[in-house]
Amino acid sequence: MLLVIMSDTHLPKRARDLPAPLWMMVDEADVVVHAGDWVDVDLLDQLEARSRRLVGCYGNNDGPALRARLPEVARANLGGVRLAVV
């Protein structure tokens, strides 16, 4: 199982986009995990569209739009391994 883990992307404030090699890994991954501080809903939409499976939570820099769509703690069972992201 290929797992991609990221957090604190802060798009588009700290960067315009994720690096191309990271997007390539997202496209190939079985599961993408984002541990918060997305900052903008557009990245959530893009990762949902490109990921086979997305596990994510909101962070302290995420506003109401992201908090409405993401949990504070995201939980998943990945091949018998329990994962929690805070």
Shape: globular
The overall pLDDT average reads 96
For the largest beta-sheet, the strand count, sense and barrel status come to: 3 strands, parallel
Roughly how much helix do the residues carry, as a percent range?
A: 25-40%
Count the beta strands. 5
Major sheet: arrangement of strands:
1-2-3
- How many domains, in number, for the residues? 1
Terminal Cα span = 22 Å
**Which architecture per CATH?**
4-Layer Sandwich
Relative strand content = 15-25%
Radius of gyration: 12 Å
What fold name stands as the CATH topology?
Purple Acid Phosphatase, chain A, domain 2
Order of helix and strand elements from N to C terminus: EHEHEHEE
Low-confidence runs of at least 5 consecutive residues: none
- Number of DSSP helices? 3
Class by helix and strand content?
alpha/beta
CATH class: Alpha Beta
According to CATH, the homologous superfamily is Metallo-dependent phosphatases
In short:
This protein has helices at residues 20-28, 41-50, 64-69; strands at 3-6, 31-34, 54-56, 74-78, 81-85.
Characterise this structure.
- The chain has helices at 20-28, 41-50, 64-69, and strands at 3-6, 31-34, 54-56, 74-78, 81-85.
- It contains 3 helices and 5 strands.
- It has a single domain, classed as Purple Acid Phosphatase, chain A, domain 2.
- The strands form 2 sheets. It has a 3-stranded parallel sheet with strand order 1-2-3, with no helix packed on it. The protein has a two-stranded antiparallel sheet with strand order 4-5.
- With 86 residues, the chain is an alpha/beta fold.
- The protein is globular.
